[in-house]
Design goal:
alpha/beta, Rossmann fold, Tyrosyl-Transfer RNA Synthetase, Structural Genomics Hypothetical 15.5 Kd Protein In mrcA-pckA Intergenic Region, Chain A, 6-stranded mixed β-sheet, globular, ATP-binding, Tyrosine--tRNA ligase, Tyr-tRNA-ligase_bac_2, tyrosine-tRNA ligase activity, RNA binding
Length: about 400
């Protein structure tokens, strides 16, 4: 863990904070705020639409940690209320809203994972929920808020423009989203707001609203959306191109070894503290060595006590077709066996957590993505026997997702 460095010269603070940043509105404002010598209030808003995080989320959490290490106070703002609206950023259609209960349940898991990167000392971490103030607004308050921004300015958002041009409906509540997010900055008196590049418009609304409410405008800082392991789309669990923030060290190591070569520079810049000359040196060398150093650096940052040598050795073993000893065990209830004493492979794939449904499991088998005992398993309608389960059958999806099946008599 880095020590808090309140007395670092402003130029050095700026150099650290600018790393990996796409938009900074404005650097002059940030310099002035830093030169004032007071801890800044740095806001990150997150709608907990999903309970799980991946390394794409780590990019912005690491930037928050940098602010913390410089002695500033970061505000983890959980959008429990705005998640019920659904952020339309980058969406081609209206997103189904969540209930307040769903968002708060997701938030609990979200915050636990954020603490893998963020410091927890109360002087550098504040956790808030925008339901605290948004839920209390009456209709008169909402009308006053909307009077501070024009429809024309809201429709300047690129995604809204595209939907209008394409004849795709935009619901009225979606037009309110940038205003509610901007009002969060007013309520929190934020000095800086962080976000992905898809949040630039929303964050600038907050900057404008603060001026309208007589506050000093926040600095807006955006970071890129990390491209996933497919090398094309942003990292996403739904696209299965992700590395989970809570993946065990060996799985995270293996995932980072699969990062497409053209993305190595971005991953080094956004997910490690390696100095640029060292990154340049690695990128000029053999890509396997660069992948190895990336994997070591990222895993060590999240798991300081991890056995990196063991994680690397496991990766090598699996890459050669081996089956690790320390794989997850899944107990299969004997009641799952049919009258013939067998159970379908598709059902076992789901029980093992390798796919979410029987249909997805059958598709996995059909596409030759499943192995049994290290060998491809091609039988879509296949069955495993009691004897096979008693022997501890090993299922494998892809290169490094294993499950050892144990029959629970």
């Amino acid at each position: 863990m880095n020590e808090i460095r309140r007395n670092l010269p402003v130029d050095e603070q700026l150099q650290l904070l600018r790393r990996g940043v796409v938009d900074l509105v404005s650097e002059e404002d940030l310099r002035r705020k830093l030169e004032a010598g007071k801890p800044l209030r740095v806001k990150l808003g997150a709608d907990p639409t999903r309970p799980d995080l991946h390394l794409g989320h780590a990019v912005i959490l690491r930037k928050m940690r940098q602010f913390q290490d410089l002695g500033h106070r970061v505000i983890m703002l959980i959008g429990d209320f705005t998640a019920m609206i659904g952020d339309p950023s980058g969406k081609s259609k209206t997103r189904p809203p969540l209930t307040l209960e769903e968002t708060r349940a997701n938030a609990k898991s979200y915050l636990e994972q954020c603490r893998l990167i963020l410091r927890s000392e109360p002087e550098v971490l504040e956790i808030r929920y925008n339901g605290e103030w948004l839920e209390k607004l009456g209709f008169e308050d909402v009308i006053r808020l909307t009077s501070r921004y024009t429809v024309a300015r809201i429709l300047e958002r690129d995604d809204f423009t595209k939907r209008l041009q394409g004849g795709v409906p935009i619901a009225m509540h979606e037009l309110l989203y940038p205003l509610t997010q901007g009002y969060d900055s007013v309520a929190l008196r934020a000095d800086v707001e962080l976000g992905g590049t898809d949040q630039l418009f929303n964050n600038l609304v907050g900057r404008a609203l603060q001026r309208d409410y007589g506050q000093e405008a926040q600095v807006v800082m955006t970071l890129p959306l990390l491209v996933g392991l497919d090398g094309t789309e942003k990292m996403s669990k739904s696209l299965d191109n992700y590395i989970g923030l809570t993946d065990p060290p060996h799985a995270m190591f293996a995932g980072l070894m699969k990062v497409p070569d053209p993305l190595l520079g971005n991953y080094f810049t956004l997910l490690t503290d390696l100095p640029q000359p060292r990154i340049d040196e690695l990128l000029a060398g053999h890509p396997v060595a660069a992948h190895r150093e990336l994997a070591r650096a990222v895993v060590a940052s999240l798991y300081p006590d991890a056995d990196l040598a063991a994680a690397e050795e496991r990766f090598r073993s699996v890459a050669k077709g081996g089956i690790p000893d320390d794989i997850r065990e899944v107990r299969v209830p004997a009641a799952e066996l049919g009258e013939a004493g067998t159970v379908s492979m598709a059902k076992l794939v789901v029980l093992a957590g390798l796919e979410p449904s029987n249909g997805a499991a059958r598709k996995l088998i059909q596409n030759r993505g499943l192995k049994l005992g290290g060998e491809p398993y091609p039988e879509v309608q296949g069955q495993l026997t009691r004897a096979q389960l008693q022997a501890g059958a090993v299922l494998q999806k892809g290169k490094d997702k294993f499950a050892r099946l144990i029959l629970a008599e």
